[in-house]
Amino acid sequence: MPESSPQDEAQQIREAVRQAAAAGDRRTLVRMACRMAKLTARPSDYAFAAARLRELQADGARAGLLKPLRTYVVRSATVEPFLPQLMVQAVAAGLWLDIGVGGYGSFIDDLMNADGALHAFQPDLVLFLVELEDLAGGLSQVCARASAEEVAAEVEHAVRGIENMLQGFRQHSSARLLVQGLVLPDQPVLGEVADSNLAASEAQAVRQVNQAMAEMCRKFGNAVYFDQDHLAARWGRAAWRDQRMFFASRLAVSPRFFVDYCRGLARSMRSLYFPSRKVLCTDLDGTLWGGIVGEDGPEGIATGATFPGSCYYQYQKYLKALAARGVLLAIASKNNESDVREAFRLRSQDLALTLDNFVAAKISWNDKAIALRELAAELSLGLDSFVFVDDNPGECEAIRQQLPEVLVVEVPKDQPWTLADRIASLGAFDTLSITQEDYQRTEEYRAMAERSDLEAAAGSREDFLASLSIVCTVIDGLDAPLNRTVQLIGKTNQFNLTTRRHSAADVQRFAGGAGGQALALRVRDRFGDSGVVGVALCFTQQGRCYIDTFLLSCRVIGRGVESALLWHVARQAQRDGASHLVGEFIPTAKNKPCADFYHAHGFRRVVAAPDGAQTSASVFYEFDLSQGLPPKPWWITLEEETKKHECAAGT
Amino acid sequence: MSAQLVPEILRNVLADVFDIPPDRITPELAVGSIEKWDSFGHLQAILALEAEYGVQFDPQRIPQLTTVALLQAELQGKGILG
Asked: What sign does the dihedral A172-A90-A588-A332 (CA atoms) show?
């Protein structure tokens, strides 16, 4: 059977989009639009798909398939022609954009003016897409004079201007922000030889402005720097801007690259809203190494310095780098376990990984869907945290069908050299910050496995827990550090009572309010330090302390840590003079494990929402603090770190 | 005049960009006569045709190509559409 060309496939998907739209089938429409976003570059296809998506989104309640975002574009060039591509690529990244666009010349007013058009739009997300000509228009001319001091002054001037704009914006808006970096000049004014040899380099100056913008995003919080130059370099800086269309219509990016550009924007936007995947589960034969260990023997598999083993070695090194920054590695393979152990032992010189780099391995002849379910249960993680890599198209299809939450990567047939790049280009492990906890994660999960061994051996549960010597330290949520607090709020799903995704600014508000609390919890035991794994946010209204947010990383649940944190919150509320502590539970698809939490801690169910709250899905519970405090587990040592901020405020 | 006078590919591309049925793409359809054919819609149509046919329009001619018939003639002048 002849294989169908990409064009044919795009045509078929387009037809499927049309049918789904006609039938009002939102789910299929979104799925087909995602496939279209991978397949086609035709502008008319994007115009068509964007119109169908807009129709269906407009004529009914949102089905919760996509994250809706009011998105305001602050710009100095023409963006309208690529909005269909942007909308469709955003849908493929799980986002629904409701777009408003500012004027060409009004980007400063948009950002700085608290009564301006941006503020009136009430955006959730702002895209800052302003061109070099408009941020540092004099740069070229200054570089032409080749004075390093003047160039440095011009860079400084541009950076200060951008910083002022963004700070002005932050004062009146808590919207999240994407800041687009500048493209390095393909034809610097001094010519490429002089530019790369002289101190007054234009390329270097633009790079410095970019680095300053990235630094602003890190300091700002809730902001992502979009490295446009990286994309331009990938596709060719000389072609990235089509000068004809730039001068005629002020299009800053060549229409040839609209799709790649919008895909890059969408990938960066996504990182502001969705946590990255946490586990990479790899097959062995034909994936981690070449050949079949059961047939070719440990000496026969391809791995190491010579081709094609070098391709697999590269993939192993890539996995090892992922593990170092906190991605958990696991194995799901159909083999005899003894063959695999022998291969790892005999070929250790030719393998970049050892079995110790994996937190878990499912090596058997069982169904891989079952193996993945077991892994998810053992690691206390959702299947939507998994990436599955396999060379067998049948296995891949089975996982896609049975476990649609899992991201499946099929190893391209006979092209092992493309594997690492293919996984990297998916952006499944994109993150905006890497914290101390991420570095320690593999060890932490291995310690967890040891703990469950001990649990099986120990007698009573409480004696077992006491043998762990658990120490909980309550710290200020602003010092956790704050980006860790916000990271936990953003990604914790299972033991999360309300699943409210608060920003850094929100956490600061809780901390600053009268009778407010913004706490983080650090946990360690004799097997290791789990780091900061819990957050509680409270506010007080008319003598009642409301727990707005209460969450713990699921890997510390079941040891009384959650009770210790609740006890501490209650005691603090009591000290602040509150009469009652009010707990709130908002059910989601994932937080069943904590549905009974307040009830189990002696809270009484009540109908009592705080003033002005939109809480239709909420269930409220109340604890009378005049009767004492909720139970505190005897086997846990609870410490409190002194609060730096109180001291600072007192001076 | 009938939409049949407009070659099928041209008709389909413009129908997508302007979000109207292909049978409404007649030779005399013009800028400003439908909601989506404003100045940005015009630019979108031009870019879609350039991508579809692998051609480039002269930027000075672009503002003058204000009807389907004029777009069609311009493409024919580039040796496309017979």
From this structure: negative
Residue A99 corresponds to which amino acid?
A: I
- Report, as an integer, the average pLDDT of A290-318: 94
Interface touch B56/A244, C-beta < 8 Å: yes
Q: Could you tell me the CA-to-CA distances from A611 to A403, A542, A608, A614, B82 in Å, in that order?
A: 42, 10, 9, 9, 71
Sequence letter at residue A557: I
Average confidence (pLDDT) over A258-267: 97
pLDDT-above-70 percentage for chain A: 94
Rounded average pLDDT over A243-269: 96
What is the ipTM for the molecules in this complex?
0.96
- Summarised one tens digit per residue, pLDDT across range A272-281 is 998 889 999 9
What tokens appear for A298 in the block?
Answer: 């440990």
Q: Residues B73, B78, B80, B82: what is their CA dihedral angle, to the nearest 10 degrees?
A: 70
Residue labelled with tokens 């309550």:
A474
Work out the pLDDT band at A561, boundaries 50, 70, 90: very high
Confidence of residue A431 (pLDDT cuts 50, 70, 90): confident
- Whether residue A51 lies within 8 A of chain B, CB to CB, comes out as yes
Judging contacts by C-beta atoms under 8 Å, the chain B residues touching residue A41 are: 51
User: Are B52 and A42 inside 8 Å of each other by CB?
Assistant: yes
Contact call for B16 and A244, based on CB within 8 A: no
Contact call for B19 and A47, based on CB within 8 A? yes
How do residues A48-71 score in pLDDT, each as one tens digit?
A: 999 999 988 765 545 577 888 999
Query: Is residue A647's pLDDT more than 50?
Result: no
| pLDDT of A610 higher than 80 | no
Q: How confident is the model at residue A331 (pLDDT cuts 50, 70, 90)?
A: very high
Quickly list DSSP for A591-626.
-GGGTTHHHHTT-EEE--PPTT---TT-EEEEEEGG
For residue B27, give both structure tokens.
Answer: 């030779």
Closest partner CB to B17 (pick from A47, A78, A248)? A47
CB contact (8 A) between residue B51 and residue A255: yes
What is the spatial distance between Cα A593 and Cα A473, in angstroms, rounded to a whole number?
A: 23
Give B50's contacts in chain A (Cβ within 8 Å). 255
How far is Cα B80 from Cα B82, in angstroms, rounded to an integer?
5
Neighbours of A23 (CB within 10 A): 10
Q: Which of B40, B36, B42, B34 lies closest to B66 in space, CA to CA?
A: B42
**What residue in A sits closest to B62 (Cα-Cα)?**
A248
Using the Cα atoms of residue A76, residue A77, residue A82 and residue A84 in order, give the sign of their dihedral. Answer: positive
β-partners of residue A622 are: A582, A604
B3 close to A (CB below 8 A)? no
| Interface mutation target, options B47, B56, B65, chain A, most CBs of A under 10 Å | B47
Could you tell me which residue, A461 or A269, shows the higher pLDDT?
A269
Average pLDDT over residues B58-71: 96
Rounded Cα distance between A83 and B50, Å, is 18
